[in-house]
Design a protein that fits this description.
single chain, 338 residues, alpha/beta, five-stranded mixed β-sheet, 15 helices, 48% helix, 18% strand, PhnD, TAT_signal, signal, Phosphonate ABC transporter substrate-binding protein
Length: 338
């Protein structure tokens, strides 16, 4: 897929100021037409994180959105952006009402954008988790041991600050346990999407970068030549897959229609179910599984672990105590779950 973005996404992604962020938020749903909380909207806006933009991702999602429109009786339009915070803010201001989010942004949406998780993704092999990876150019001689030795000899590509697999997981599982701070370890550190980082590794712009198993599948399908130039040198423990998040203050009847749509999509027998499964296959999904925000608890643990590391680095004893309490509560909850 092309790494170009549509004009709206480029404008939103490049902007750093609050004024431009608000422009992006307003543009995704037509601020003058914002619906009152709990009222039946005249249309829904479905937000999708995509570094490539609508031109390349749109055809994969549009059949699903068309089917959603028919099922819920309200037109559904997409909003593509290449920045997690733009999409979270769009939901917070009720400019988008439904979203496909990876785990960390889904958690952010629950915590500060009135988001409610209704489903999680299942891949074609039946997995509802994926992995973070560290990638290098094949034949480069860059190994995990060399990377962890630091020495400021490598250019490093990391993900968006809100990226579960691009930033949070490598910090939690790889760098933090070893006391490694990327900005102090590498010659340079640049933040970009998984696709941009993969391209940078393959072309020698950076020596090592974060990625994930989903992006590996995507590259092998869409750009096998690029994929053949890259190899993994580290794989994380499983991470909760992406989820479907809706605004919790949507009309209750509409919420149930949305829930039913996702949980039954591509299920059953017959030509229509077969067609829906083909739509899901294009997105590299097999189904949507029922979920609530408790499925994000592993991500909450990662967030608390990162806060603990940051507090220790600042010698913030109050912050350390708070993060340790959060971690203890989450781990206790995990231990009592079946």
């Amino acid at each position: 897929m092309s790494l170009s973005r549509n004009p709206l996404s480029r404008r939103l992604f490049a902007a750093a100021g609050a004024a431009v962020l608000l422009l992006g938020v307003a543009s995704c749903g037509g601020g003058d037409e914002k619906q009152a909380a709990g009222a039946m909207p005249s249309e829904l806006t479905f937000s999708i994180l995509s570094a490539e933009g609508q031109a390349s991702s749109g055809p994969l999602w549009q059949p699903l959105l068309d089917d959603m429109s028919k099922a819920v009786g309200v037109p559904v339009k997409p909003f593509f952006a290449g920045n997690y915070n733009v999409l979270i803010e769009a939901m917070r201001f009720n400019q988008t009402q439904v979203a496909w989010f990876s785990a960390k942004p889904a958690l952010e949406a629950v915590d500060r954008a009135q988001g409610e998780v209704i489903a999680r993704i299942v891949d074609p092999e039946g997995r509802d988790s994926y992995t973070s990876t560290l990638i290098v150019r094949k034949g480069s001689g860059v190994t995990l041991d060399k990377v962890l030795a630091c020495g400021k000899q490598y250019d490093f590509g990391i993900g968006d600050a809100q990226s579960t697999s691009g930033t949070l997981a490598p910090l939690t599982f790889l760098f933090n346990p070893r006391g490694i701070v990327p900005n102090q370890c590498f010659k340079t550190v640049r933040s970009a999407s998984h696709q941009a980082n993969a391209f940078a590794v393959a072309t020698g712009v950076v020596d090592v970068a974060t990625s994930n198993s989903v992006n590996t599948v995507f590259m092998r399908r869409e750009n096998p030549q690029l994929a053949s130039q890259i190899e993994d040198i580290w794989v994380s423990p499983p991470i909760p897959e992406s989820g479907i998040v809706i605004r919790e203050d949507l009309d209750p009847a509409l919420k149930e229609k949305l829930r039913s749509f996702f949980l039954t999509y591509g299920q059953g027998q017959g030509p229509e179910a077969d067609r829906q499964r083909q739509v899901l296959a294009g997105l590299n999904y097999s189904m949507f599984r029922a979920a609530d925000d408790s499925y994000l608890d592993p991500v909450r643990e990662m967030v608390a672990d990162q806060k603990l590391s940051e507090a220790k680095a600042k010698n913030d004893q109050a912050g350390v105590a708070a993060a340790e309490r959060d971690l203890a509560a989450l781990r206790a909850k995990r231990e009592v779950q079946p």
